[in-house]
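Usage

Read records sequentially. Each one opens with the input sequence:
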Amino acid sequence: MLKYLRLTAVMSAVIIQFVPSDRSAIAQEREGCFLVNSAGEVINLNQLCLPQESDIKLTGNDGKFVEDYRRLAKSYSPEATNNLLQAIQRAPGQKIATAKRMCAEAKSGVSLPEFKLRAIGQAVSIENPTAKESFLADADIITTLAGNLYCPELASK
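and closes with the structure output:
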């Protein structure tokens, strides 16, 4: 654990030195933690940046959620599919919690289709086409699965 923290601190210090302070922020063009080197190659740093949830044992509706999410993710472009599969692999609990939160809000009056409309509104500001497709696909998949698995009584409303 101490090695991990030390490595993270060193990597952060090195990376921060190369970040110009006068540039404005831009949206991240791909999911996860990565570095683009001077040759334009993408180096995956997910193992350094985030604790992995992938070892969690999911059963019942949660297991079905992850299984169905993976299946539905494959119906999008290869780039979006890759982003979606990485996201569900890295943080299945976060996706499940989002679906359950949607159902809780739906039970208090917000319809599930309203969540999709909100996502469309938020996606307007995403300039990268792959990031936009991934964002919208994620919202669509989670909303669909929330209605199917966690609040089927609200799915048709």
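Summary fields computed downstream for this record:
- The CA atoms of residues 66 and 153 lie 21 Å apart.
- The chain is about 60% helix and 5% strand.
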